[in-house]
Amino acid sequence: MNSAKAECGILEQKREHSFWKILGKNLFPASLQSYLIALGAIFSLNFILPRLMPGDPLHAIYGDEALVAMTDEMEAHLIRQFSLDKSWWDQMLAYIMGLLQGDLGFSYYYREQVSQVIMGALPWTLLLAGLALVIATAIGIILGIESGFCRGSSLDRGLVASLMFLGGFPDFFIGILLLLIFAVSLDVLPLSGAASPYAGYEGLAYIFDVLKHLALPLASMVLVQLGGIFLLTRNTMVTLLGESFILTARAKGCPESCIKYSHAGRNSLLPVTTATGMHIPHLITGALFIEIVFSYPGIGSLLNTAIAARDYPLIQGILLIVTVTVLSANFLVDLLYMRLDPRVRYAR
Amino acid sequence: MHVDPIGEISHDPLARIGLLMLAIITLMAIFAPLLSSYSPHDYTGEIFSPPGMDHLLGTDSMGQDIWVRLLYGARTSLVVAGAVALLSSSLSVLVGATAALAGGLYERFCMRIVDAMISLPTIIVMILVAAYLRPSLPLLILLISAFTWPGGARIVRSQVLSLKERMHINAARTFGAGWRHIVSTHIIPDLSPIISALMMQDARRAVFMEAGLAFLGVSDPMVISWGKMMHQALAFTYLDVWQWWLVPTGLALSATLIGISFLSCSLETAMNPRLKKDHARDNVRYG
Hints:
The complex is a heterodimer. In chain A, about 80% of the residues lie in helices and about 0% in strands. By secondary structure, chain A is mainly α. The two termini of chain A are about 35 Å apart. By secondary structure, chain B is mostly helical. Chain B has twelve helices and no strands. In chain B, α9 (about 180-215) runs parallel beside α10 (about 225-235) and α9 packs antiparallel against α11. Chains A and B meet through α1, α7, α8, α9 and α12 of A and α5, α6, α9, α11 and α12 of B.
């Protein structure tokens, strides 16, 4: 008994070992490389763009509006910090060193470090985008499986037509419509924000309050995301149902629900996972628009303020953080995809 | 693979609805000066006047006629859509086709860049660039094209790769046809349905991005844009003006987007089913 267990452990270890090896071999050259290129491109864009602008780079980095409020002393300090009086090479070193220390610059609008401003807003965005992704994927897959299984029925046709129509709307307009219907006209849900200010709710009441504020932004994001996931699952289902392994399952006498979910449904998860990974940039940018519509205190609203105030360090910081978030999410999806599809793991 | 896209989609009700929507928007854009007696930049009356005979959709917070601005906004959207579709799809074909035909290090280099650009959150990168450059309309078109071509390049490449190995191309090669001949008589014509689908998707993204950027407040102040109108109108949701300012503008934008996506969806179905797998992967929603 014990030896069997030990053997199992060794096998398990071997599998884990080979998994990481294959991960290193297959994933590193392909997707990770392009993620690193993407990240490098963003770094250089952030570095080069302000310095390409005509005139004083300090003006370009901080914007004219900030310099009005700036003292000579501060200006000298900033020039020293960015090494602006030295060569491009030194400037780049200073920039990279600053980034490595987590220094994204100073937001003159909020009078705080950019990294701190962003960290204050990021959890709200992640809450909104993460929940929307989970809910939209779950509903989309279930509806897609059901609809693909009874292809051509009135349920299928109705779902396809309505979700395709819905998917055509731009995200922010769906948000605006929900806002106008539920918050402005019916006045049943809060108009803006993430929690009632100065209400002093605690515990359960606070959670309820947050959920109430989350309802409309979340609903609009789910509505926007749903269509793509649904259509993809449905189309994959339709293709899969024509495969011979489904016929085999039918011949074995598998119950319909077993064929629907365990045979066809499970296999239709693969393309959905890939698509979900490719969706993540859209998901995050979609969240930004929705946040602006609902004044939800996440990265989107921050970006809106930063654009209006021309707070360039803050815009740059947001770009950097969002890129890192998106790329790491993509990477996680790649890992998940390898767990789901053995062919990717053992190929080559 | 020799598909006649126009013949295929003319029987599809989806495509007909899409075409109808786009036709209405296009007519609105073309005949904008005839459909109204005001200029979009003029102060034409009291602010926030409700819809009436004078002003079909009332006036906004600057006293400008909303209907006129809606008409001229259609021009901006369609010009951006058309220009980006042309520019971006030619870039996609150029990079994708040359990568597939040349192969080797050049192909790897191109595709790495394409992969990297696809994984970026495009809109935010564009916001940053636009915030610095404060782009005019032509610059905005260049900017949007610069960020929309990679998705198409990947599709074109995979298609050319598979076309390259087809029987008829091998046959042509055994008869001694040069690459130039093969590309111009076999590959380019076979690519045309994909290119038309690509252009649709690029146009859709362009309309969305133009409106989205303007909605975020990054746009040329002189350009009339639906996104900017919505941005301005959103500040006045506490008044009744949203009924004739915010909603019609949003509906016009949505109609354009839905029209284009219906057309492109039926184009996709009309095309080679073999392509669909790859296509669905890359273009689930925004393309």
